[in-house]
Amino acid sequence: MPQRFSFSRLMFWVGIAFLYVPMLVLVVYSFNESRLVTVWAGFSGKWYVELFQDQQIMTAVWRSLQIAFLSASAAVVLAILGSLIMVRHRNFKGRTLFSGMITAPLVMPDVIIGLSMLLLFVAMGQMIGWPENRGMLTVWIAHTTFCLAYSTVVISSRLREMDRSLEEASLDLGANQIRTFFQVTLPIIAPAIVSAWLLSFTLSLDDVVIASFVTGPGATTLPIEVFSSVRLGVTPKINALATLIIAAVSLVAIGSWYLTKRMNDRVSAQLATS
Amino acid sequence: MTSDELARKDGRKHDEILLSIRNLNKYYGNVLAVDDTNLDIRQGEIFALLGASGSGKSTLLRMLAGFEVPSSGSIMLHGNDIAHLPPNERPFNMMFQSYALFPHMSVEKNIAYGLKHDGMSKDEIHDRVQSMLKLVHMEKYASRKPHQLSGGQRQRVALVRSLAKHPKLLLLDEPMGALDKKLRTEMQLEVVDIIERVGVTCVMVTHDQEEAMTMADRIAIMDEGQIQQIGSPVDIYESPMNRMVAEFIGSVNVFESEIVDDQENYMVLRSPDVESDIFVGRGVSSAVDDKSMLFALRPEKTFISMDRPDKDKNVTRGVVEDIAYLGGHTVYYVKLPSGKIVHCFLANTERRAERPDWEQDVWVYWQDDAGMVMRS
Prior knowledge:
The complex is a heterodimer of chains A (274) and B (376).
Chain A: H1 7-29, H2 46-53, H3 55-88, H4 95-102, H5 110-128, H6 136-161, H7 164-172, H8 177-206, H9 209-214, H10 222-231, H11 236-273
Chain B: H1 3-13, E1 17-28, E2 31-42, E3 46-51, H2 57-65, E4 72-77, E5 80-81, E6 92-95, H3 107-116, H4 122-135, H5 151-163, E7 169-173, H6 181-198, E8 201-206, H7 209-215, E9 218-223, E10 226-231, H8 233-238, H9 243-248, E11 253-262, E12 267-270, E13 278-280, E14 292-297, E15 303-305, E16 315-325, E17 329-335, E18 341-347, E19 361-365, E20 372-374
Parallel strand pairs in B: 3-8, 3-9, 6-7, 7-8
Antiparallel strand pairs in B: 1-2, 1-4, 4-5, 9-10, 11-12, 11-14, 12-13, 14-20, 15-19, 16-17, 16-19, 17-18
């Protein structure tokens, strides 16, 4: 059926192109035979082979994944504790101040977080001798800090929505506070925990600014590695790496979208019942 | 009624006290939510706390459950003060207004939840869950999740979940609050039936007087944190202690009046709203100097007639101000010469009988023992 020309349809495609053409170009050039990024010289997968042989990049990938995993996990655990205090403990005096402060890193520029973290680590290193020098540990701590802010927002809003009488029912039926938390509260806020973890994981994987402040020798993360190698000229190897990252991120995004949709459907069906 | 049922009704009557609430207070900041309350709950009865929102009834229930800690006072169970025990250490279970069924657990797991914390064996738990499901005819739904059940089914599960541990006291928080009107009436009788079959003592909170009167053996009317009156539904309706109770339960016509004559077996009152004397077929034998009294009359005991009734007391003239035809009965709003509006119910026992019309002059009258007298 011939579609009538409409302005909104045109703008839709312009918008899509604006978002995706750059990535498409990158993906296409990752299969370029030539060493020169902008000159097409035929199809080849050789840059992928070279990428996997590049020890430095592969180490950086592995390191970044480790840091992202650890940061996301630590941030989510702390965010659950923080959310419980913010939402559940009404007689906690500094609640409003605490709620405001815990989300401050959301609006703070990365440069400031990175710099202040660096100064803190240096000062601590001089005063108490820990952390001795900067490396994976300091990147992990710094990433946990800012991921914590995002995770808390996600988890606490879910906790606020949850019907309090569910926890009361559990106590009433003889479970103590700890059991109530693990058997009732945790399963119900699980979708929020999963999304908070995924969000933190991607944020950590993506960060270059904060990491470059607090990282040290032998702890170069992938974004920093890419950033510094690009300064020497973009090789198609980076294109190949970027293509793989795009593929991985798309898979994770689609997967998590599907997962949260399924969980939310279930939960909203459950919420409709109560 | 079978002999079995009769025996149970008799069993209810014995006055053994299960729970005593003494001088219970609850402050929220400076606000007094429950004010120096004393209350005895008898073994085996269904007791309703009835009041408007903010009357303190829910706070009282939550203190019984252990979700609120009293500011002062005691809750005595078998001679032990349990006022400060946490909810998980009290032998009480509660059915929540929202039911609070765990959405991630099946019906079976929901019911077994409380039993697991009692250290029962797997077989015992299974048997108990089955017998509970049987009680509400829900055996087929054991593996369903709560969101796959209808409102009435969810309520049944919530009820047996709170009964599964054989609590000494069952607490019901607005038990029918989440149901629509038609289902409500049905479930009220079903819930009472189950509670009686199990024989558990029950305290319920509700703002719905019909629900309280249908379900409860005794009712406490609460207002501003205080219990105004405790009694059977008949006591509360027919002999309210004060104007607040009379007006809260059903509708009522209240006349401010003065005692003219007060004898042992009768009393005569005079009210500016009523043209004749008001004759009450019993005395209050008050030694108080204060002569002012409230005379209250339920609309269904206030009769309306187009002809002058043959009596010189308990009768007054009026004009029909408004008519509300409700099918089963009609409510007439009659304006007395003083300007006061009186409600009268007229049961529609005949189809299309001749009835008073708008603006018609009528007579309002009542029997000697129909009215209630109150000090305040």
